[in-house]
């Protein structure tokens, strides 16, 4: 990476109109743990690959419940993500208290993005070093959003985030056209297959320790499927090589 | 790009009286998505070319409704644009509440420009990295304004913004003299033709996915024409090669 | 321009007692659009040469009404000028409200200058990058003042500002002795002749699009003469080559 | 260590998305005194190796009681640790006052982590240069958490911290599978054996002066075992060479 | 002027105990317009040489009335001087309002000096770039004070300030012993003669346009003598070559 | 000392996790005047070697009474020490007022340390450049504490501070085992002997001018022994060469 | 003077524990005008050598009355001294108002020193560039104190300050033993003799213009002896060459 006089302050534009500190914060997201989010007409699913620093410690959680109808998957600086997650929980609870209904997913995502934007324009702070995949369900249906340190957010049918996410994205691009009408089970399996693509060959692969699944949908509050509860899906995954072949 | 000791602080003039950080922020506008705005006596139209990072995601919205009589097209940093759009919506609503009438378009544009100017004069902030094309209609008729990171704004009959906007501008300069008396349909078609000029040759061109049209006019609240609703205009566009030839 | 360690902070004196950032801000004024102001015993007149970025846009206004008895011509950063113009309007209106009479021109100019001075003495701001020619009429007669980014202001019989203003100044110096007793028409023509000197030879010259005239005087509220209304004066100007010769 | 232009400000991301100042603060933790924490189903135990600057002074305390059900072991800057310890005591007491029950261990750890995160995102402060091993017992059982200057925290079955902690970690990794069902005595002995691994060969080893033990568990408020009280365990340790052999 | 690492911040002492930024501000005073102040037992007189940027503009005022018993002559940055002059007027008026008597001259000068001192000790401001000659009369008699950017002030029998002031000072030093018992007319003439010494040989000399005289004394409120009113003194000056000779 | 890019800001960690500015502040302590503190079961004693800049001035006090049961010896920047001493006096008095009992020595020392820690973590301040030896007596017995600029504090049986303190420390290490049961007189003599070790050979040695002794103990409020009152101890010291020999 | 990276910020310690900016401020004191202070059992005397920039101006005052029982002599930046003098006057008056007795001299000196210390520890200010000799009399007798930019203060029997003060100090060291029982006249003469030592050989020596004497003592409010009133002492001084010889 070349030497650059415009890349150490968040309030400085480069001569080509870029804000390098925001871009560097996005690098922190790219090197976070990998995760996949996808949706059908009725469900939004997030699956994450958890990491552990050693076998002595538990795996680091990457999925968090925000409210009954919203959950998030984080990639990047965990401590920053916690700040944003707390913010989302508060905003969602406040909205429910004031309006006696659930906050719409995009509205909550916009609030997170606005909060992030502030950190890109004032001296003396740094951008949040975290990206979120937000899965939610509201009167407009199932949603998958990605938020960025820049204050941007994107609406996706399916997306992956974190290290080696390109491989998962390739899987998703090949298969996403069928997601809309998938059953929940099929949707979860697609998510796991995409996630599996992000694992280097010499790794042990997906297992009940390192996989977490989050599901939200119509009359289906955001639910975490973890540990043994993931085994039925992982077992189906093991036997599906032919299925994936068929897809390819 | 040459080394410059006056270009990293918004509060610093260069020896030739320039504020480089403002100019760099304008670069962010130039590299945003392309858009075109034009007006007749009765209508103001904005057309934008939306981008998508991949086929998994939806196209990024570039047109936003501010109020019944005003809409904007953005180019540059989306998160910054969101801040300004929210500001415009609040100011417009407040005005309506206090004066029981619609805010005049130029007055609202001036407020945005004043807000932008503040970011060019105090240490510790950066200019907004976004330009807006504002289309509106008020008792003075149809309006097209462009706002800049510098706090300047310009009144146009027709204008384009963003990457490759020079090509669209050339089209507009050849044709703008007839815009005043155009029908709405003709005006939209002129806008789409100008926008088409901003597309590199090897691209797929305009289609119902990547084109958004915003219209506002006399007794015609600001309306977004998107997706399938754009097809009638796109179809007319396809059959109009001869027309454009005639123009040239 | 030589390398200088004292020229990047507004709070730093050079070893020779200069504040370079103030001087650089004055450069922004010199490169603004050109304008001319002059006065007789009864009238003060400002004439400006407007610029347009392209034929698609309207010409940028350079004359602004502050109050019935005061108007300004700006040169430099337009957004900064807007801030100062708003300030003058507020101060003038407040004065009228409190004292039930018009604010004296010099008093208002002093307020602008004091506001500008603050920006030359505290860290974290930059000077205003704009100069104003203020034309006004009060119980002391007609006035022309120039304000500067430094917080200085000057009282003139006639003056020009902006790019190529030296040529206009030369015309004014040759002719100013007769201004005091001119008719309004003659005064305007002198202003236009001086303004014409600032136009490079290969330009189209003055026309009803690029010229604005502001007049204020005894029982004559500040009035803008623009577009077609300028034609009588421009026509007289075309036929006055001999007059100018006679003057030279 | 190489020269780096991104490592002197807490608000600066490096081009690879790292915040070097946070990483440097973690170095302060690595060079602190060594400690070990481990848990069974019913107990959490922390053991620390105290240092003394000379025989004239008492050994520096590294274990602190936070509340009846929580204690901490510190590694890094002692003065920073005191700030965090006071904060934990206050939060725990406030919680008890408001809710009339003990704060859950993870909740308190999260508060410390959130407080630490703030110091990684705003200009003008530095991260806390201390890591904590938190041992606690609540309705969810025994807990061992580690907090970091980054605002991250980790849930462990067993862990070591500070200088030469890798040797202790190796011992823990070989033996941790049996910890869950250990008696308290066995658990303490495992902790001491792991701690012994962090002592350079030419040192005097563990003794009642330099060892502190903290225990918390079901119906067992956090208790410090120090000075003579440690002798029974140290004596058992001396005679256990074969045991450790057996383990290896 | 040599390169210096201690001269860009007002809060930095050089290794020899100097504050260079204060000294540089004093340079701004030295390069201001020249002025002379002197006093007899009953009168204090200030005379100034006004400058004009061109014949189109009026001469810049350098003498200002502060109150009936005090006036000032400024040298240096005019906008800074205006700030201090306003401050003096306010303080003098407030004193009169509270104590129902005139403020003593030295007391007011001390206030100005204290205000200036603040600007030499806190980061983020710059010293005032102006020196004042204060002429006043109170129950202690006639006074001439000079204030400096450093916050120092000096009590003089006679003094000159601004560019080429050394020549005037030489005249004053030769003649000051007779000032105490001068008539007012003689005192003014001494002032004009001293001022004349500051004019380069090829200049036009003193005239009613470029000279201003301020007088204050016993039962003689501070009065400006300008324009035609200066002619009697200037005429006497023209005929006094022999007198000056005699003095030398 | 090598050139270092991490050592000029208190908020900057070095890549090895050190805060150099804190370490530099500790240098100021090392170069302060030397002092010794030691305790028996019933008494805590501090002895200091006072310095005088010349025979014209009195010796600088280094011992200060904080409260009846606490006194301090300072080494380093005297002005900083005064700030901390005032703080201790206030805290001790407040405690007595609120709780109607004496503050425990360690509690007061912790308050000083916490105050010092704040100065190591926020931009724009510097650490206190002073170390304190605190001698006190409370219900837990006699205490000697040392506080540091880092916010650390240490509990000692005996300790020395300031320049050449290593020699005194060597004496203390050889003899401290007998201190616990010393009489007060013996304890003072041990302190003086240790202090004598810090004096260069060519100096005049201890005398009633340069020695101060502070004593606190059971039913013995903190008392300063100065000037002539020190003579009995100094006389005993002169005759004790054999005693010291015996010890060695 | 060597190049130093630690000497431009008041909040920065050098690697050897020094705060260079404080030391540089002390240089300003050394280069101030010279003064001498000395005391007997009943009186404290300060004598100062005043400077004048030219014969046109009065001599700069260096002695100031603080209260009936306290006066000061300043050396260094006069404007800074004025700030401290005002502070002392206010504190002394407030004390008298609250306690209905005179503030003790050392207490007031401590307040000045504490105020000075603040300027050595916070970013964005500079130390006071002035040293004070404080002469006072209270129930403890006569006092001479010196305050420094560092926030230190010293108690002296006799001392000199400012340029060439070493020569005066040499005189004082030779003679101070007899001061305690001097008559006031003798004490003043000793002060003048010491002051005379600070004058370069080619100067005119002490005279009634450049000498000021301040006296305070038992039933003797602080009194300034200036101008003609100094002549009796100066006359005695002229005839005392033998006396000084006798002393040597």
From TrEMBL, chains A, B, C, D, E, F, G:
Residues 6-28 form the Proteasome alpha-type subunits domain. Keywords: Cytoplasm, Nucleus, Proteasome. This is Proteasome subunit alpha type. It comes from Tieghemostelium lacteum. Pfam families: Proteasome (PF00227), Proteasome_A_N (PF10584). Its main location: cytoplasm. One of its GO terms (biological process) is ubiquitin-dependent protein catabolic process. PROSITE patterns: PROTEASOME_ALPHA_1, PROTEASOME_ALPHA_2. It is found in: Cytoplasm; Nucleus. It comes from the Eukaryota. SUPFAM superfamilies: N-terminal nucleophile aminohydrolases (Ntn hydrolases) (SSF56235). Transmembrane segments: none annotated. One of its GO terms (cellular component) is nucleus. The keyword Cytoplasm applies. Belongs to the peptidase T1A family. The 26S proteasome consists of a 20S proteasome core and two 19S regulatory subunits.
């Amino acid at each position: 990476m070349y030497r650059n006089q415009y890349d150490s302050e968040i309030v400085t534009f480069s001569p080509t109109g870029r804000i390098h500190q925001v871009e560097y914060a996005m690098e922190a997201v790219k090197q976070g743990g990998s995760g996949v989010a996808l949706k059908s007409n009725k469900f939004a699913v997030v699956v994450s690959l958890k990491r552990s620093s050693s076998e002595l410690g538990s795996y680091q959680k990457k999925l968090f419940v925000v409210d009954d109808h919203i959950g998030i998957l984080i990639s990047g600086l965990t401590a920053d993500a916690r700040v944003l997650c707390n913010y989302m929980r508060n905003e969602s609870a406040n909205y429910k208290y004031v309006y006696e209904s659930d906050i719409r997913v995009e509205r909550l995502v916009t609030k997170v993005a606005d909060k992030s934007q502030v950190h890109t324009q004032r001296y003396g702070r740094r951008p949040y070093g975290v990206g979120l995949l937000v899965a939610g369900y509201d009167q407009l249906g199932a949603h998958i959003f990605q938020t960025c340190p820049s204050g941007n957010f994107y609406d996706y049918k399916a997306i992956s985030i974190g290290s080696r996410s390109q491989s998962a994205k390739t899987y998703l691009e090949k298969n996403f056209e069928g997601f809309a009408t998938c059953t929940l089970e099929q949707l979860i399996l697609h998510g796991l297959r995409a996630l599996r693509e992000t694992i280097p060959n010499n790794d042990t692969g997906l297992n009940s320790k390192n996989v977490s699944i989050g599901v939200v949908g119509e009359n289906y509050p955001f639910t975490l499927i973890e540990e043994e509860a993931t085994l039925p899906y992982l077992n189906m995954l093991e036997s599906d090589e032919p299925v994936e072949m068929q897809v390819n």
